Amino acid sequence: MSLTDLKKGAKGKGDKAEQDKKFTVDDFINDADNYAKGVPQLVSSTTAAPAGKQLQELELDQALDIAEQQHVRSKRKGDKPFRHATFTLSEQAIKQLSELAEETKLAKSHILRILINELASDEQRQRLTKLLATKID
Asked: pTM surpassing 0.70?
């Protein structure tokens, strides 16, 4: 028995290309997420399927992953451009706003946006002027 008999076996050029699959770090991370969900794609790809079919499936999966990531990013940005605002309220106003938030199960900022929207029309501006003339601190 010679050392050449100990080699694993002759491999064709096509076999080597199938074994050395190229994928990016993002592909690896996405597949780790998929693996955690129970549907790995890079790890569980079968070698019995034709290489072209695997490539198409991988490209389709990559396109779906990219679309999903873009959808998640657009959700994070939000449809409404909100900005942080700092203003001063009296203790009584803070208490009233907190009570209103607890009763309605709405965020305080949401309640303020609703009130501002209600007071934005011309008719409502007249009411606001009347309210402001009441001298409440």
From this structure: no
